[in-house]
Amino acid sequence: MEKISSETALHAPEAPAQRSVSLVGLIMHPGNEYRFFLGMPRDMRVLLVTNMIYAFVLPVIEIFVGAYIMRSSNDPTIVALYQLTVYAGIPLTFLVNGFLLNRVRISYLYSFGMLLSGLSMLVMMTLENLSAAGVGIAGILMGCSFGFFWANRDYLALATTHDGNRNYYYGLETFFYTLTFILVPFVVGAFIAQSESAAWFNGNITRAYQAVTIVVFILTILSSVVIQQEKFRNPAQPRFLYFRFHVLWKKMLGLAGLKGLAQGYLVTAPAILVMRLVGNEGSLGVVQAVSGVVTAFMLYILGRFTGPRHRVFILTIALAIFLAGTLANGLLFSALGVIVFVLCKVLFQPLHDIAYFPIQMRVIDVVSRIEGRNEFTYIFNHEFGLFVGRLIGLGLFIVLASYVSEAFALKYSLIVIAVMQLASVPVARHIIRECNRLDK
């Protein structure tokens, strides 16, 4: 009864005064928040703890692998090629994962994905020459690790939550992701910069990257152990491959394509911009850290005190911040412009996720009931919507950088992507209305 009343209180309409008292309670009595967390279902808590540990790994993979390639090759198209092969490996692995779910426990597949990310980093760091072929192989390996990780993470997030507590789930998760994306780049960037200036590892900067990779691998082992503490159930229905879908799901795929457009850039452009206009990896960490811990706490508060009806508003704010950052970068195209852009990026991504993922899960809830299909069907199919968007976004960058100029691509293509992203707002609003209508 206590858990039910907590969730009801979280999402029931509140008067402004009541909400303000709750916010004061959050600040003054953090122990209450821990008790609130303990009131959530055990399987949801185990999943969150696993993801919190792995949150220390993701910034290294997403930021410093790109910076390492950029440093070693000095070629932004090689960085883009790496990201393209990563994205090519993800949907392929979603497909393989769907078949393996009929035979292997989902927690084992989840652990394998996390361990494979550390292994793919080791492969990258042992390459003597960063040729297109070598980078491509390392990228596909990393894509496979992301595929196993995200396919099973998304299914478990869907299975262990409901529409009423998903804002809280993603708010808490993005709270930790945002903290780690601030702290980890700062610490790792400072370590790499100090290694270079103090001539640690006999002046071999690759050794510094390898040391970071070892720490990453240890964290993936720890997170893999934690996820085994709960017996998660695999999807009940074995079939997950379909080619015809409800019209609502097709609209969700359009929203996924728009999200993918930005993703293609946000793992490539920041590292290139910082290396070109700001400085080395130490600067990369400092730029991320400037956004401050305030962002993380803002995200937690949003997850804690908002409900389904606030998602479009949060999405709108996120996209407006992203557009502002791209305009600052394009108009200034200087160290200051990059700093403003990265600050906006740090705000945009988690805000967008808090709104986007619950909308996606809500659509899966509704459409899977209508069509009577395995929920993994939609998680698998959703990845292709993202992939198409990523392919278009990265393809645009590669074409502009190769046939116009790198500066033109870094200046203006981001603005184009940000403007296109604004279409997400009316699409998301329409999708939510359709979900509410069909779920009556």
Report on the structure:
- This protein has 440 residues and is mainly α.
- The protein has a single domain (19-229, 245-438), classed as Growth Hormone, Chain: A, CATH 1.20.1250.20.
- Helices cover 82% and strands 0% of the residues.
- The protein has helices spanning 2-11, 16-28, 30-38, 42-54, 58-73, 76-100, 106-126, 132-160, 166-197, 205-227, 247-266, 269-278, 281-290, 294-305, 311-332, 335-371, 375-403, 406-421, 424-438.
- α9 runs antiparallel to α13 (281-290), α11 (247-266) packs antiparallel against α16 and α15 packs antiparallel against α16.
- It is globular, with a radius of gyration of 21 Å.
Order of helices and strands: HHHHHHHHHHHHHHHHHHH
What amount of the residues lies in strands? under 5%
**Mind summarizing the main beta sheet?**
none
Number of strands: 0
Which residue ranges are poorly predicted, with pLDDT under 50 across at least 5 consecutive positions?
Answer: 1-21
How many structural units, i.e. domains? 1
Q: From the coordinates shown, what is the CATH architecture? A: Up-down Bundle
Share in helix: over 70%
Question: Which value, in Å, is the CA radius of gyration?
Answer: 21 Å
How would you classify the helix and strand content by structural class?
A: mainly alpha
Average pLDDT number: 82
Transmembrane segments: 46-69, 81-101, 108-127, 133-151, 172-193, 208-227, 248-273, 285-303, 315-348, 384-404
Keywords: Membrane, Transmembrane, Transmembrane helix
Protein name: MFS transporter
